[in-house]
Amino acid sequence: MTExxxxxxxxxxLVCDDSLANYDSEFINWLRxxxxxxxxxxxxxxxxxxFVNMKQKLYALGRPGVSYAQVVYDHAITIEEFKxxxxxxxxxxxxxxxVFYKERFDYDRQK
Length: 111
Description:
The protein has one domain (about 5-90). The protein is about 25% helix and about 20% strand. The chain has three helices and five strands. The protein has a five-stranded mixed sheet with strand order 2-4-3-1-5. Strand 3 and strand 4 form a beta hairpin.
């Protein structure tokens, strides 16, 4: 499967910030530090947005006129909003669908 197909799986968050025009922005470094990989076609087009696939841990910097994937909820979000969403979902990484702490349906119990 090509990286572009992987990027489009599950849709992408469209993250927007002026700093993203710089390929070495703080957010791009944060993505890399958190295990995200750049797709081969993610060049520096000086756009202030990036497509980020949280499930596949892939990202592509924006390119004028190119939509790499369906955008989650058809709207861009800020870097801080993405980090909040990522924080929520990363705490469930590797757990079964209904396991919140240690066992199924334990959402109303303490850790």
